[in-house]
Design goal:
The complex is a heterodimer of chains A (about 200) and B (about 240). With about 200 residues, chain A is an alpha+beta fold. Chain A has four helices and six strands. The chains are: A alpha+beta (about 200), B alpha+beta (about 240).
């Protein structure tokens, strides 16, 4: 009889404890989600003055494999293989200062000084993603882990684009674009020079 | 003098040796008990290069919490599903645009294992940048054709009119641990692609905000006046 009483008492206690932990957990989750929702930022607007003149496109094949072992026994694996295209964009940031001075003696001649061309950004094109393989065993892939490899690829593409001459190509095309614009408004002779890049100034 | 039993001494020595061994080999033991290994890699292939002439004058950065930003208050997915089934027509013909967003966001979330209702965990914060401005090569042609008069000596006293700025590009920011202070994002590449595409499509739907276009055009006018040495008064479309 006593054993039966103890059994019911313990069962009720366990149920009450589970219900309490469950409620607290749910409330906590609810609060966390609400809190995140409040963090949703509004749209942010910004005035920019950028002339984009050259784009280099790359295709990257990315691999990620994460394995977990407990006491030497395989206890989870998340693996993915996919390709994605990226674009390295170069041009000039006009907010760094533009000097345009017409020649005093020859009104059809103008001197222009522009900021040095720079790599403005490296952008991933999500619409180009092709997933070849995905494996999620005892656990899910976290895109934040995979994004680290995408950052590595972006840095590599940026460096490769510079090695392939994206900055000199951007400079040549900027010269053509600004020259054509000034010729369109009546200048016959346009002389354009670029300020040295920060790296060149540092030597 | 009382003698310490040899069994007690043996136990103390064994425990001490065991504790010392665990202390010395704790890292190896931890590695044996629980071990995680990650291997990553990527390779790049250069595809092509192209020249453009885009004058960017204004950017708008949106932060969207998917799927929560697409949920409507007091609206339930199954009620919408029921209406679509009863109407026996495509969802886009039966539901309002906001209801359709709610319906499609829940459908996508179900597939990806994200939240399917308000207050549920499982979300992604997506940052999308929209860039507005002008295609300068096209603008140059327009400027050439719109110059009203040109004095023979180059002293031009006229105005040029430019069209309103337009959307040049949109891009979704890649996530990185440093800039993403939220929960883990349990998505694979296709899942991330689906979320980014869903959010971008909603942002690009409909006409752009008039205020954005007006600000982008104003900056364009200012830049063009500088670039054309203020030989012209550059006007926007509203003063045409």
């Amino acid at each position: 009889m006593n054993i039966r009483r103890w059994f019911w008492a313990i069962l009720i206690l366990v149920l009450l404890a589970s219900a309490t932990v469950g409620t607290v957990g749910l409330r906590d989750t609810w609060r966390r989600v609400d809190h995140r929702r409040l963090e949703a930022a509004r749209a942010h607007v910004q005035r920019v003055q950028t002339l984009v003149t050259t784009r280099y496109r790359y295709r990257d094949v990315v691999f990620f494999d994460h394995r977990t072992r407990v006491l030497g026994i395989p206890a989870g694996q998340q693996e993915i293989l996919f390709s994605v295209e990226m674009e390295v964009t170069a041009g000039i940031d006009l907010s760094h200062g533009v000097e345009i001075t017409p020649d005093r003696e020859d009104r059809r001649r103008v001197f222009v000084t522009l900021p040095a061309p720079e790599v403005l950004r490296v952008v991933t094109d999500e619409s180009s993603i092709r997933q070849y393989l995905v494996l999620e065993r005892f656990g899910r892939l976290d895109w934040l882990d995979i994004s680290e490899e995408i950052q590595v690829a972006k840095t590599r593409n940026r460096r490769d684009a510079v090695d392939r001459g994206i900055l000199s190509r951007a400079q040549a095309h900027t010269r053509a674009v600004v020259g054509n614009l000034l010729r369109a408004v009546g200048y016959d002779s346009v002389e354009i020079r670029f300020r040295p890049a920060a790296e060149e100034l540092r030597g | 003098m009382r003698r310490v039993p040899s069994v007690a001494v043996t136990v103390v020595v064994v425990v001490a040796v065991a504790a010392g061994s665990v202390f010395v080999a704790r890292e190896h033991l931890a590695g044996f008990i629980f071990r995680e290994t990650t291997s990553t890699g990527s390779e790049s292939l250069f595809l092509d290069a192209r020249d453009v002439a885009e004058l960017e004058t204004f950017t708008v950065v949106h932060k969207t919490v998917f799927p929560h930003d697409f949920f409507m208050e007091e609206t339930h997915f199954y009620a919408l599903l029921d209406r679509v089934r009863r109407a026996d027509a495509p969802a886009r013909e039966v539901l309002t645009p906001d209801e359709l967003d709610h319906f499609q966001a829940v459908s996508l979330s179900q597939r990806l294992g994200l939240a399917t209702g308000p207050g549920q965990p499982g979300y992604v914060v997506v940052t999308t940048t929209l860039r507005y401005g002008y295609d300068l090569s096209r603008l140059e042609e327009q400027i050439r054709s719109r110059i009203d008069q040109t004095a023979a000596d180059g002293s031009i006293e006229s105005a040029i009119t430019i069209p309103p700025a337009h959307l040049l590009s949109q891009e979704t920011e890649d996530l990185s641990r440093e800039d993403y202070p939220y929960s883990p994002v349990y998505l694979d590449a296709e899942g991330w692609q689906a979320v980014a595409t869903f959010v971008s499509a909603r942002l690009l739907r409909g006409d752009p905000d008039e205020e954005t276009i007006s600000q982008a055009t104003a900056t364009g006018i200012e830049l063009l006046e500088t670039l054309t040495t203020r030989r012209f008064e550059v006007r926007g479309p509203e003063t045409d």
